Give the backbone structure.
Amino acid sequence: MKNETISESIKINDTLKIIYDRRAIRKYKDKPVEIELIERIIDAGRMAPSAMNRQSWKFHVLTNTETIKAFSKEIVSIAAKKFIKTGLRQIIKSITSMFHFSAAFDVLKSGDPVFYCAPVVIFISAPVDNEWAELDIGMCSQNMMLAAKSIGLDSCPIGFGKFIQQTKIFSRLKIPETEQVYFSIILGYGDENPEMHKRIRENVFYID
């Protein structure tokens, strides 16, 4: 892949290969991730650009299996209550998105329908009043997921992680009231190799 050509003048280099190879992985081996690798991945996140270079992100890491399952259970409870308020159609749509029905029964049976039994969960928080936090954390998260792939790990972005703030065990993260969780990422040694989804290509418009 390293020397594969995508045009007559551009060759796939290591960075592009990582970008093209990264997938959202929802099945993981029962194998812990070394702390040194977690630190390396977080460090890659720190290298992301941020508005006015505030670097306001903070990383809250879970590695205990039972703790992760407890957080997952609480998030499901909160999410279900929200879906009920939005009606049956939204419930079905959201559950389909959340569990990716192809593996829904295995995920539910595992006791971890949110974090897919990944050995590492990272919640990313920032100040509540930071209007650029979501953009900053998005770039930070992408850095982390690409870094994970480059060192032999897999990842998946978990938007449902933000519901942790509304659970009764949120205080265990020790996040002050002035901050909120915007996003979460799971990491681990992947145990699946999903195909790449077709990419939309009719979405570029050269203006001048």
